[in-house]
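Entry 14. Ran structure prediction on the chain below.
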Amino acid sequence: MLTCPLCASADTAFYHRDARREYLRCRHCALVFVPPAFHLGPEEERAVYDQHENSPDDPGYRRFLSRLFDPLRERLPPGARGLDFGAGPGPTLSVMFEEAGHPMAIYDPFYAPDASVLEAEYDFITATEVVEHLFAPGEELARLVDRLRPEGWLGVMTKRVTDREAFTRWHYILDSTHVAFFSEATFRWLAEERGMAVEFPAADVALLRKA
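Output, structure tokens:
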């Protein structure tokens, strides 16, 4: 059986199969993931993302992002510096934080691939609708936590797994670029593993604070 891409445990088991691909679940950290054999190549992945029409001029998109923006902003000191990881083709969350007085850097492997920003330290890092796309979430999230200053925040927005029956009917798995599915239990495992506190202030939102 394949090892888990989040915690590297070999204790994984079949979870679901549909017409396109299959899904495994880790018994250690509870991540549900798509095996690498079903991952898209870079060009196919980029083609899907190019269809996204996100813009800071879209009030509806801002309202969507406010589910993470509002509770995280309440917890930040004035002038806290942040990184929007996986900003996508139309960076918007970074604009919202800059408007609120927080200097921002952005990174996206396709649209803002300046890896030098991943060498700096930050008071907070956001990843909205990102972790479900990560082929190696354990490696990527460890790198982000390492870039946080003490008492820094990692804000994640992603829809969460609830149970197997709901998973089989879930629209979220229809997106071929979604390959890693977190549950509340997964975030609690991550927080404990990285020595962080975690809270869930809004739907689909997890805030993790570094010790």
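The chain has one domain: 12-210. Will compare against last week's run tomorrow.
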